[in-house]
């Protein structure tokens, strides 16, 4: 049960103007790197907040770009938890990152109280994520423009 959260960023007009002045491919790459930096900020916080018994839940946390919802002027990432065992090249089952039970931990069950870690991570770090995104975007734009303001 995925929950989409959309965050509107305001006050970055000059950065946006500089981004729009770049060629499409470079702008898209800069925006993707910036949104990835924000997603990694949330993922790291979720990793700190995830309860540790075996460590599987912490290892299973990831941030991923959703290509179908991304484009030149918009990048979409989500932070989630891997579920399902994978098979290695040798054909052996590897369930070291199968945290199928994460929803039980996050939302609780009739027999277990919730111990949320994803939602609180987002709430705690959403402003830091925006700052990380702006810093990465500024860095990428300056790199492309050769340090020109």
Protein model, in words:
The protein is mostly helical and 149 residues long. It has one domain (13-83, 97-144). The protein is built from 5 helices and 4 strands, in the order αααββββαα. The protein has helices at residues 13-21, 24-49, 56-60, 102-107, 118-144; strands at 61-65, 77-81, 86-87, 93-94. A two-stranded antiparallel sheet has the order 1-2. The protein has a two-stranded antiparallel ribbon with strand order 3-4. Helix 2 packs antiparallel against helix 5 (118-144). The longest helix is centred in the last third of the chain and has 27 residues, at 118-144. The protein starts with 12 loop residues before the first helix and ends in a 5-residue tail after the last helix. The model has no long low-confidence stretch (mean pLDDT 84).
Features:
about 150 residues, single chain, mainly alpha, two-stranded antiparallel sheet, about 50% helix, 5 helices
- Number of strand elements: 4
Give the biggest beta sheet. Answer: 2 strands, antiparallel
Structural class category: mainly alpha
- Give the overall shape: elongated
The fraction of residues in strands falls at 5-15%
Report the radius of gyration as a whole number of Å. 18 Å
Helix percent band: 40-55%
Amino- and carboxy-terminal Cα gap: 43 Å
The total number of structural domains is 1
Strand order in the sheet with the most strands: 1-2
Q: Give the low-pLDDT segments.
A: none
Written as H for each helix and E for each strand, in order along the chain, the element string is HHHEEEEHH
């Amino acid at each position: 049960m995925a929950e989409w959260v959309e965050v509107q960023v305001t006050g970055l007009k000059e950065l946006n103007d500089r981004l729009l002045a770049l060629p499409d491919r470079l702008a898209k790459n800069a925006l993707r790197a910036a949104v990835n930096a924000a997603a990694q900020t949330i993922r790291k916080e979720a990793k700190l907040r995830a309860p540790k018994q075996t460590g599987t839940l912490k290892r299973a946390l990831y941030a991923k770009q959703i290509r179908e919802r991304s484009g030149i002027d918009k990048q979409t990432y989500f932070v989630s938890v891997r579920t399902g065992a994978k098979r290695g090249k040798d054909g052996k089952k590897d369930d070291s990152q199968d945290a199928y039970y994460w929803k039980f931990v996050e939302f609780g069950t009739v027999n277990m109280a919730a111990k949320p870690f994803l939602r609180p991570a987002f709430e705690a770090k959403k402003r830091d994520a925006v700052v990380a995104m702006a810093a990465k975007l500024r860095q990428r734009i300056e790199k492309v423009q050769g340090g020109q303001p």
